[in-house]
Specification:
Elements (H helix, E strand, L loop, with lengths): L2 H19 L3 E6 L4 E4 L1 H7 L3 H4 L4 H4 L5 H14 L3 E3 L25 E9 L5 E10 L1 H26 L2
Antiparallel strand pairs: 1-2, 1-5, 3-4, 4-5
Organism: Brumicola blandensis
Protein name: Diguanylate cyclase
InterPro entries: PAS-like_dom_sf
């Protein structure tokens, strides 16, 4: 084996390790919405092993996901090769994962931002998309607390003005 081939194998290995350990969910789906990649983040939060998800429909694994809505969202990614996004403000979560911070966190589930990207093959076709799932629970909780404080402050100011 040449040094170049060995270097490529070693690089592939650490890239795969990175995909498994990054603190972001990574799911690769084909055009039938069958799972092809399910990384460690998704495994840890869903309790499903990659072998449990591989080649299975995302909608059979997670029946709460609206098939029509998600297919519309993904269509532009497949056809136009554009990115698509879902923020926790639009939809609190795609995957209803429990919040893993039961002591410091006040939220029962993980708030998520989702990014969908086209994966262009060596032939130039787009047969797969990559879904990245970001845990936004801390940011969502902080924003909710800030809004609650603003409402409380506004109510106090309103009461103070009425009493004058």
């Amino acid at each position: 084996m040449s040094d170049n081939a060995l270097d490529e194998i070693l690089e592939f290995h650490w890239m795969m390790d990175m995909l498994q350990t990054v603190d972001v969910g990574i799911v690769v789906l084909n055009r039938k919405f069958e799972v092809k990649v399910w990384n460690g983040f998704m495994e840890a939060h869903s309790g499903l092993l990659p072998s449990d998800t591989r080649d299975k429909s995302l909608f059979s694994l997670f029946p709460d996901i609206s098939e029509a809505w998600f297919e519309r969202k993904a269509k532009a990614v497949f056809e136009l090769r554009t990115r698509a996004f879902v923020t926790w403000e639009q939809r609190p979560y795609l995957f209803k994962f429990r919040n893993f911070r039961p002591i410091t966190g006040s939220e029962p589930f993980m708030y998520q931002n989702i990014a969908l990207s086209a994966l262009v093959s060596a032939t130039g076709s787009v047969d797969h998309i990559c879904m990245m799932v970001y845990d936004m629970t801390d940011a969502a909780s902080a924003k909710k607390q800030l809004l609650a404080l603003q409402v409380k402050q506004s109510e106090q100011e309103s009461t103070t003005h009425k009493n004058k």
